Amino acid sequence: MRKVAVGILLSLFFISCGKKNDIINYVPYVAVNEIVQINDPNYTLNGIGGHALIDGGVKGIVVYHRSDGNYVAYDRCSSYEPEKRCAVNIDEVAFQVVDPCSGSKFLLDDGTPVKAPASRSLRSYTVIKRNIYELQIVN
User: Fold this and answer.
1) Percentage of the residues of the chain whose pLDDT score is greater than 70
2) pTM of the full predicted structure?
3) What is the mean pLDDT of residues 33-37?
4) Cys-Cys crosslink for 56: which of 34, 37, 88, 93, Cβ 3.0 to 4.6 Å?
5) Are 80 and 102 in contact (CB under 8 A)?
6) Contact (Cβ atoms closer than 8 angstroms) between residue 135 and residue 36
Protein backbone atom coordinates (compact mmCIF):
# COMPACT_ATOMS: atom_id res chain seq x y z
CA MET A 1 0.00 0.00 0.00
CA ARG A 2 2.82 2.37 0.90
CA LYS A 3 4.56 1.73 -2.47
CA VAL A 4 1.37 2.54 -4.35
CA ALA A 5 0.94 5.82 -2.44
CA VAL A 6 4.57 6.80 -3.10
CA GLY A 7 4.14 5.93 -6.78
CA ILE A 8 1.03 8.09 -7.07
CA LEU A 9 2.72 11.01 -5.32
CA LEU A 10 5.77 10.79 -7.60
CA SER A 11 3.53 10.64 -10.67
CA LEU A 12 1.62 13.75 -9.57
CA PHE A 13 4.89 15.54 -8.89
CA PHE A 14 6.25 14.88 -12.39
CA ILE A 15 2.96 15.73 -14.08
CA SER A 16 2.69 19.05 -12.22
CA CYS A 17 6.31 19.91 -13.07
CA GLY A 18 5.62 19.32 -16.76
CA LYS A 19 2.60 21.61 -16.72
CA LYS A 20 4.54 24.35 -14.98
CA ASN A 21 7.32 24.22 -17.58
CA ASP A 22 4.80 24.27 -20.42
CA ILE A 23 3.18 27.39 -19.00
CA ILE A 24 6.55 29.13 -18.64
CA ASN A 25 7.52 28.31 -22.24
CA TYR A 26 4.56 30.07 -23.84
CA VAL A 27 4.03 33.77 -24.47
CA PRO A 28 1.48 34.93 -21.88
CA TYR A 29 -2.08 35.70 -22.94
CA VAL A 30 -3.02 39.37 -22.71
CA ALA A 31 -6.17 40.98 -24.09
CA VAL A 32 -5.58 42.78 -27.39
CA ASN A 33 -7.90 45.19 -29.19
CA GLU A 34 -5.92 47.71 -31.25
CA ILE A 35 -6.84 49.88 -34.24
CA VAL A 36 -4.21 50.55 -36.91
CA GLN A 37 -4.54 53.22 -39.59
CA ILE A 38 -3.16 51.68 -42.80
CA ASN A 39 -2.26 55.10 -44.25
CA ASP A 40 -0.45 56.32 -41.12
CA PRO A 41 2.83 57.85 -42.36
CA ASN A 42 4.68 56.18 -39.46
CA TYR A 43 3.95 52.78 -41.03
CA THR A 44 4.62 51.13 -44.39
CA LEU A 45 1.45 49.03 -44.49
CA ASN A 46 0.15 50.18 -47.90
CA GLY A 47 2.60 48.12 -49.91
CA ILE A 48 3.20 44.37 -49.97
CA GLY A 49 5.92 43.55 -47.43
CA GLY A 50 5.09 46.66 -45.40
CA HIS A 51 4.90 46.55 -41.63
CA ALA A 52 4.00 48.47 -38.50
CA LEU A 53 5.21 48.17 -34.93
CA ILE A 54 2.42 49.11 -32.54
CA ASP A 55 1.71 49.03 -28.82
CA GLY A 56 -0.22 46.16 -27.28
CA GLY A 57 0.32 42.52 -26.48
CA VAL A 58 3.19 41.47 -24.24
CA LYS A 59 6.09 43.36 -25.89
CA GLY A 60 4.30 45.17 -28.68
CA ILE A 61 2.78 43.92 -31.94
CA VAL A 62 4.18 43.66 -35.45
CA VAL A 63 1.63 43.95 -38.26
CA TYR A 64 2.74 42.72 -41.69
CA HIS A 65 1.23 43.06 -45.19
CA ARG A 66 1.69 39.65 -46.85
CA SER A 67 2.26 39.05 -50.56
CA ASP A 68 -1.30 37.67 -50.91
CA GLY A 69 -2.68 41.07 -49.85
CA ASN A 70 -3.76 39.95 -46.37
CA TYR A 71 -2.44 41.33 -43.09
CA VAL A 72 -1.08 39.31 -40.18
CA ALA A 73 -0.12 40.36 -36.66
CA TYR A 74 2.20 38.79 -34.08
CA ASP A 75 3.28 39.59 -30.56
CA ARG A 76 6.85 40.88 -30.55
CA CYS A 77 7.65 38.75 -27.48
CA SER A 78 9.92 35.96 -28.69
CA SER A 79 8.55 32.45 -28.30
CA TYR A 80 12.01 31.29 -27.22
CA GLU A 81 12.27 31.74 -23.44
CA PRO A 82 9.31 34.16 -23.36
CA GLU A 83 9.81 34.77 -19.64
CA LYS A 84 12.78 36.96 -20.67
CA ARG A 85 10.32 39.23 -22.58
CA CYS A 86 12.75 39.79 -25.45
CA ALA A 87 11.12 41.80 -28.26
CA VAL A 88 11.82 40.71 -31.84
CA ASN A 89 13.06 43.31 -34.33
CA ILE A 90 12.33 43.68 -38.05
CA ASP A 91 14.88 42.37 -40.56
CA GLU A 92 13.52 44.14 -43.64
CA VAL A 93 15.94 42.50 -46.06
CA ALA A 94 14.70 38.98 -45.32
CA PHE A 95 11.03 39.67 -44.39
CA GLN A 96 11.76 38.20 -40.97
CA VAL A 97 11.94 39.25 -37.36
CA VAL A 98 14.97 38.52 -35.19
CA ASP A 99 15.18 37.81 -31.46
CA PRO A 100 18.23 39.83 -30.37
CA CYS A 101 18.55 37.81 -27.16
CA SER A 102 18.84 34.33 -28.71
CA GLY A 103 19.44 34.95 -32.42
CA SER A 104 16.24 33.09 -33.35
CA LYS A 105 14.53 34.21 -36.56
CA PHE A 106 10.86 34.02 -37.54
CA LEU A 107 9.11 34.47 -40.90
CA LEU A 108 6.75 37.43 -41.01
CA ASP A 109 4.52 35.58 -43.48
CA ASP A 110 3.32 33.01 -40.91
CA GLY A 111 5.32 33.54 -37.69
CA THR A 112 7.20 30.23 -37.89
CA PRO A 113 10.76 29.94 -36.63
CA VAL A 114 13.41 29.60 -39.34
CA LYS A 115 16.52 29.75 -37.17
CA ALA A 116 17.12 27.94 -33.88
CA PRO A 117 17.00 27.88 -30.96
CA ALA A 118 13.29 28.84 -31.24
CA SER A 119 10.97 25.95 -32.06
CA ARG A 120 7.55 27.61 -31.55
CA SER A 121 5.85 30.18 -33.75
CA LEU A 122 5.23 33.71 -32.57
CA ARG A 123 1.88 34.33 -30.85
CA SER A 124 -0.49 35.46 -33.59
CA TYR A 125 -3.45 37.79 -33.37
CA THR A 126 -6.54 38.09 -35.56
CA VAL A 127 -6.55 40.96 -38.06
CA ILE A 128 -9.92 42.37 -39.14
CA LYS A 129 -10.00 44.82 -42.03
CA ARG A 130 -12.66 47.27 -40.83
CA ASN A 131 -12.59 49.39 -43.99
CA ILE A 132 -10.01 50.43 -46.60
CA TYR A 133 -8.17 52.56 -44.02
CA GLU A 134 -8.31 50.60 -40.77
CA LEU A 135 -7.24 47.28 -39.32
CA GLN A 136 -8.40 45.94 -35.97
CA ILE A 137 -6.01 43.60 -34.13
CA VAL A 138 -7.73 41.32 -31.60
CA ASN A 139 -7.48 37.97 -29.85
Assistant:
1) 83
2) 0.81
3) 97
4) 34
5) yes
6) yes
